[in-house]
């Protein structure tokens, strides 16, 4: 019996601050205590992003808390972690990221059915303040319409 993919952490702020153009799944290279800490859900994706350097992709500013029983074998919580992508995916992402205004933002960290840790990366473009206000106004209008329809029934 296969287990369902289990989300460990989600970057809710990303969809608020960015227009998500494309989503890519990437593996993440972890140390032993990092995996244990991730399984406990001790990860924070806020302010984290990915960069492509020298033909490889890295996750920066992702905080994975030290594993309590790990003592001296623990890792640096903010260390740079390598993301595992196919060469074709890397080239395509690099070409798009080089365009002005695009960045790679992690949306969520999860474990697959096979127990592998994965990161969902988004190719995103930053929102301006007025874009955020427009999105909030749209959400509020949709809520008002739903409320009116509900009372009408």
Q: How large is the share of residues in beta strands?
A: 35-45%
Taking the sheet with the most strands, its summary is: 7 strands, antiparallel
Instruction: Name the structural class.
Output: alpha+beta
CATH-defined fold name:
Small Protein B, Chain: A
Q: Could you explain how this protein is built, in words?
A:
The protein has 153 residues and is of the alpha+beta class. Helix content is 32%, strand content 35%. The strands form two sheets. A seven-stranded antiparallel beta sheet has the order 1-8-9-2-7-5-4. It has a two-stranded antiparallel sheet with strand order 3-6. The protein starts with 5 loop residues before the first strand and ends with a helix. The mean pLDDT is 89.
Layout: helices, strands, pairs:
Layout: E1 6-10, H1 12-17, E2 18-28, H2 32-39, E3 43-44, E4 49-53, E5 56-60, E6 63-64, E7 81-84, H3 87-97, E8 102-111, E9 117-126, H4 129-152
Antiparallel strand pairs: 1-8, 2-7, 2-9, 3-6, 4-5, 5-7, 8-9
Characterize this entry briefly.
The chain has one domain: Small protein B (Small Protein B, Chain: A). It contains four helices and nine strands; from the N terminus they run βαβαβββββαββα.
Give keywords.
153 residues, 4 helices, Small Protein B, Chain: A, two-stranded antiparallel sheet, seven-stranded antiparallel beta sheet, alpha+beta
């Amino acid at each position: 019996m296969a287990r369902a993919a289990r989300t460990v952490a989600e970057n809710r702020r990303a969809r608020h601050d960015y227009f998500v153009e494309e989503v890519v799944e990437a593996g993440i290279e972890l140390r032993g205590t990092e995996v244990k800490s991730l399984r406990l859900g001790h990860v924070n994706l806020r302010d984290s992003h990915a960069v492509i350097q020298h033909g490889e992709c890295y996750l920066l500013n992702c905080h994975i808390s030290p594993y309590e029983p790990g003592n001296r074998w623990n890792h640096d919580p903010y260390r740079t972690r390598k993301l595992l992508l196919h060469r074709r995916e890397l080239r395509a992402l690099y070409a798009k990221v080089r365009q002005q205004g695009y960045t790679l933002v992690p949306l969520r960290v999860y474990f697959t059915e096979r127990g592998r840790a994965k990161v969902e990366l988004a190719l995103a473009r930053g929102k301006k303040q007025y874009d955020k206000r427009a999105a909030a106004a749209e959400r509020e209008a949709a809520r008002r319409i739903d409320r009116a329809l509900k009372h009408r029934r």
